[in-house]
Design goal:
Length: 273
């Protein structure tokens, strides 16, 4: 296949890492896959940090972006131009949240090809090793066999949890529903995947879930501006009428305070009648 040929260098790297973890690390092949997943996610930590920062920026600027969408809702092209301009001015990358998934897709496909030819190319070099994981599944067998459906059930739960934590940063409800439905749509396809690939995917989901929990705790709550009405005085309006009236009355009182005024009587006011 063309894809397999393009990913051949990555397949060789994954094979060498798995062999090293099994031979030098003393891990079984299944736990070597788990360790490989952890190594991959640790290498993607800088990308995950960018993802977190992007999610934070999107939440902080959500009210402003929503206002732009409302202002240009009649002109989709103008709305897109203004949003892209807004992203550029505020240094927001709306696609940063997808980077961890994009980087993992080639690794996922490469591991699929590695496990596909595992029994013929790698396993004969280690005849005393075991392909079982916890006595439940064989990493080279389809995930639908044996206790594989248990892995599928755990996968669905972990996938829904991880995608829910990711979807909370999305502004569109359609995007949220789409990313929540995708794990269910993938079920007919993953039934034929090797169980080892499901172990990789499951470990990735558990990592993503933990990362999502930490992210939600670090995410700042969006600042909600107070609603203004016609009765709300402007911020630079100085004193309110009541305070101004009290100040004027106080000034009048101070001006009237002091010694009483003397009234001079006129002399020779006229004869008495």
């Amino acid at each position: 296949m063309i894809v397999g040929g393009l990913l051949a260098p990555l397949e060789n790297v994954l094979t060498e890492v798995l062999t090293w973890l099994h031979d030098s690390g003393g891990l079984t092949w299944a736990w070597s896959i788990v360790a490989l997943t952890v190594i991959v996610r640790m290498l993607l930590v800088p990308v995950a940090v960018r993802q977190i920062h992007s999610m934070q920026s999107l939440q902080i600027h959500a009210p402003e972006m929503k206002a732009l969408q409302q202002r240009y809702k009649a002109d989709r092209q103008k709305q897109s131009e203004e949003l892209m301009k807004f992203y550029k001015e505020n240094k927001i990358n709306p696609y940063a949240s997808c980077l961890p998934i994009v980087f993992q897709i080639p690794i996922f496909i490469s591991l699929f090809f590695v496990l596909k030819g595992f029994e013929k190319e790698i396993f004969p070099k280690f005849p005393e090793s075991s392909l079982d994981w916890l006595g439940l599944v064989d990493i080279t067998e389809p995930v639908k066999d044996g206790w594989g459906p248990l892995l599928i059930a755990i996968y669905v739960g972990s996938q829904l949890t991880s995608t829910y934590l990711m979807s909370t940063s999305m502004q569109s409800k359609a995007q949220r529903w789409m990313i929540m439905v995708l794990p269910i749509v993938f079920l007919p396809f993953i039934l034929r995947f090797p169980a080892g690939l499901m172990i990789y995917w499951l470990t990735t989901n558990l990592w993503t879930t933990g990362q999502g929990i930490v992210t939600r705790r670090q995410m700042p709550k969006p600042v909600i501006l107070p609603k203004r009405s016609s009765r709300t005085p402007p911020k630079d309006a100085g004193e309110s009428p009541a305070s101004a009236t009290s100040a004027e009355s106080q000034d009048d009182g101070e001006s009237r305070a002091g010694p009483p005024r003397r009234v001079k009587r006129k002399r020779g006011g006229g004869a008495r009648r």
